[in-house]
Every structure is written in structure tokens, then in C-alpha cells.
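Why this split exists: single-chain examples teach little about how molecules sit against one another. For that reason, every record in the complexes split bundles all components of an assembly together and asks for one structure covering all of them. Below is a record exactly as it appears in the raw files.
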Amino acid sequence: MHKKAVILANGAFPTHEIPLQELKNSKHIVCCDGAINKLEKAKIEPYAIVGDLDSLDAELKLKYHDIVHHFANQDTNDLTKAIHWCKKNSFLDITIVGATGERDDHMIGNVFLLPRYAKIVKVKMLTSYGVFTPIIRSKNFESYTGQQVSIFSPNSDTLISTANLRYALTNQKLEQMWQGTLNESMGDSFRIEFEGDSLIIYQEY
Amino acid sequence: MHKKAVILANGAFPTHEIPLQELKNSKHIVCCDGAINKLEKAKIEPYAIVGDLDSLDAELKLKYHDIVHHFANQDTNDLTKAIHWCKKNSFLDITIVGATGERDDHMIGNVFLLPRYAKIVKVKMLTSYGVFTPIIRSKNFESYTGQQVSIFSPNSDTLISTANLRYALTNQKLEQMWQGTLNESMGDSFRIEFEGDSLIIYQEY
């Protein structure tokens, strides 16, 4: 069993019960520094605070000085810094919350960073509406009949096949990012097979 | 001058002042059928209602029977149907509102559909945080110093150069979707030049 952590990113603080419970029940919350004020307000204690510390005021810096981890690298965003901190500290099963719901470009950027993270940790992202799971190899997903499912293929050459989805793919490419959206599960599981680069699977709650 | 229309998509009803004013001030609101209840609730009259009419109840169907336009094509989503209706009716300058803020996969799908629309109409999408503009040729953008800007390149082979952005690109590819995010305008305009496929530019308000 890998050690689990929940990363709180600096988007909208979770309001949906599923990401909120995940956050509240976690013993290892790794907080991107821009999100620490929201976590304070919710009276939840972080296990670690990671970032460039730009957004941390002096009082919080003092309060949390023993769990604050400074990464000065300007070439990665806070979420990526948090993932690297987790990896370095042997947290290899990561749930990201709070990564959506504010700036749209951050949201898209964060979603399309997931395949990179999947190469070093097990990771998923919980939003107010569903869960994004990056996959680097073929995978079965637990589901339910009628669950809305979308497939995003960052590399348009990837050949994809599906089992138990309403609109089946058979060794097909998704040449446009919208082409794999609006699919639907036919039962309590479905399967995504592919050759090539990573995919991102979205399942509505 | 092209005739203008505002399309109300079936995501979250606008709350930010910019898309909301755009909607309220429009004489030609083209409403995706799933959004008609929200428009009714806001006491705003549509000019046209477009979709497969699945989500329209009998009362509204009767009330709006003379402006309801049925598209049965199951292969396109409601937003695409609304764009085609606009094109057919000579509305060639389109502002999309209400396309984000609910299901994350719809939001991503809608954003990456924009370059297709840009081939047939002038179009932009207003969200609660900023504006997405698809471009099919090099373009100058009005801006302000410090405006947050992100560039999305659906085709990773596209060669891009920028002028007056903090992190300049010079005939560079954006091989990953997150690589063009988190840029910033250096003044009251910036320029995006590119060879190849279309781009999507995001500017924070």
C-alpha cells in the first residue's frame, strides 16, 4: 500500500461533499501555498505547505515554519511543486482537490498536467462535478449504468478502444479534444485500452 | 459590420458582470435549449431557441413555438447547433456565455470546439474569469499591463511567436497543453503570430 496524501490546490476551495470529505478525512494534506488561507478559514490543519511562499503572510509563515517547504523553481506551478514534494516524501497515492472552479486557464492547465504526474505517482483530481484520472496504460474503471464519461487524448495519435461505453471506440484516434466527450457507461465497469501516449478519463459523480 | 448574437450555453448561468451585461444588452440571444429555464428565471427573452428540444417542457414549447428551432443531429452538441443556426441566419459575430462553470468535461469540450467555430463565424467565449478567443490567423489583442494571458495550441506542431508578453515565444511549439499558460501582457496590446493550425487565447478580465 502506498502512502496517501491529499493536495489542496489554489483554485476554488471544495464545496462538493466528495472532495470536501476527502480533504477533511485526510491525515496528510499537502497545501499549495496560495490555498493556505482557505484551509485556515475552514479550520483544517495542513501536514505540509509547498510553494514559492509568495502568498504566505508573516504570521502564517511563523505558525507553520516547521512544515513549510520552499521551492523557488519558477518553471513549475504550485501544483507540480506539491506533486514533487509528495513523491520525494514517499506519498505515492495522491488525490488533488481545489484545482478547478476559478481561473479557466489554470483549470485546463492543471487537467493536462495530470498525465505527467501519473508517470511518477498514482493520482486523480476531484472537482465539484466529477473525477479526472490520468492513465498511462489500459485500465478498468468502476462505474455505474448511465455514468457520464469523457476521454481526453492529449496526443492525437493515440489509438483507443473502449468496452462497455455507449459510443464504442475501436482502435480510433481522438483527433480533436472534444471528440471523446459525452460518452456514457453501460454498467458497473468499463474499460479503456490504448496504445501510445497517456489519456485523461473524466467520470461524473 | 456583421450582425451580432449572444449564445447562452447550458453551463452555469452567468454571474460575473461582464458576461451578464453582454447577455442583458443583447437583442439577439440564441439560447441552447437546456438553458431556457435559466433564461426564463432571469426574466430575459430569447430571440431563438436551438437544440434537440429534449430539455424543453410542453409549456415553454408552446410559449416559444415560433422561435424554437429543432436540430435532431445527435452528432453535434447544443452549442455547435446554436453556432450553425447563427451562421445560417447571418449572425456572424458571436459571443458565447454560460458555457463553463458546471461539468468540467463540457467546459473543456466547449473551449476546444472554438477553433472549429472560428472557421465559420467571429466568436469569443466569456466566462466568470476571462475570455477565450480562437484565432485562425495572427492577431493583435487589446490588453493592459499585467493581464494574465494563456495560449492553448490544440495542434502541437503549430509554430508560435509572441510580442509584448512577459514570456516570449519565438517560433516555438507548445507540445503540452499547459506549456502556454500563465503568461502576462506587458502593455496595452500584445501580438500572437503563428504558422499552422488555430490557437485559443485566454485573457483574464
